[in-house]
């Protein structure tokens, strides 16, 4: 009966769940103020070329520094920002921050090949998205080729006319798209034919089991074969061990990102890497010692 169900529901509503719900409620309230009060920070996680272990680019990753609760990770607050309708403002803040950082590096004679920015489905699919992105890039006088957008498969779940138009506008602008967490989402591959889509990021869950898991090894190899025949470059996410690095390099993966090379770091630390990269103009910067 409904009464029993109610009792059951109550029984399963543990103190732990109540604490989580309370935290969620408090954070929701605070999230509304976080942008105005400058509580967000950007970290950058470098990625390397498997060919020579040199720096290729970096992904901008957001952190919320809550005044009382310390650092809160995007897995917790991005879904909240999506429900509150704040994500477009947050993603826009990230893009502007990245463009200003690129401009600052340019003024100090440093150049990063590209920075990847994560864009939520709701904002990517919004009719104002392309215009806003163009304005931000132009205002900061950034080369659009230095910006890459990461979207997940679920963002292009329905490859409708609006998404196609967004994609071709981005392609026209020179902004490349990477499919983030590739292999974990929607199973249609039609969007891989869009000219703006230039990169696949293999989800960490497939990299985890390398090289020992025969299943993960087969899946990764199949993704690399498919990507190569479609002219897409592949970035492996979550590379943590030398054995994973070796497998991916030998399998012909182009690019790697993960704790083996670097955790997400502050802009100053990335500036230092760029400075070292620029000084060794012939010998490429090596984040990972070359193995013998
Ligand atoms: P993502 O785009 O797939 O980002 C990669 C995540 O994996 C990051 O977590 C990164 O710190 C973590 N990671 C990198 N290397 C390793 C590794 O070797 N091992 C392990 N275990 N983890 C690794 P993070 O920073 O917590 O971000 C989580 C997710 O939050 C991101 O996943 C992205 O979907 C979302 N996100 C982050 N920043 C933004 C943003 O500015 N806007 C939007 N819309 N979403 C964001
Ligand atoms: Mg990403
Ligand atoms: Mg990912
Ligand atoms: Mg992710």
How would you describe this protein?
It comes from Oleiagrimonas soli. Residues 24-278 form the EAL domain. This is cyclic-guanylate-specific phosphodiesterase. The protein is of the alpha/beta class. The protein is 46% helix and 18% strand. The protein is built from eleven helices and nine strands. Strands 1-2-4-5-6-7-8-9 form an eight-stranded mixed beta barrel, surrounded by five helices. A hairpin with a 5-residue loop joins strand 1 (40-49) and strand 2. Helix 4 (87-107) runs parallel beside helix 6 (129-139). The protein is globular. The mean pLDDT is 91. One magnesium ion is lined by residues 180-181, 201, 203, 237.
List keywords for this structure.
18% strand, binds ligand C2E, cyclic-guanylate-specific phosphodiesterase, alpha/beta, eight-stranded mixed beta barrel, single chain, 292 residues
The string of secondary-structure elements, in order, is HHEEEHHEHHEHEEHHEHEH
SS content category:
alpha/beta
How many individual helices? 11
Q: In what order do the strands lie side by side in the largest sheet?
A: 1-2-4-5-6-7-8-9
Bound molecules: ligand C2E, magnesium ion
Radius of gyration over C-alpha positions, nearest whole angstrom: 21 Å
Give the overall form. globular
Mean of pLDDT: 91
- Low-confidence runs (pLDDT<50, min 5 residues)? none
Distance between the termini: 69 Å
Instruction: Assign a percent range to the helix content.
Output: 40-55%
Strand fraction band? 15-25%
Short description:
The protein contains eleven helices and nine strands. With 292 residues, it is α/β, with parallel strands linked by helices. The longest helix has 21 residues, at 87-107.
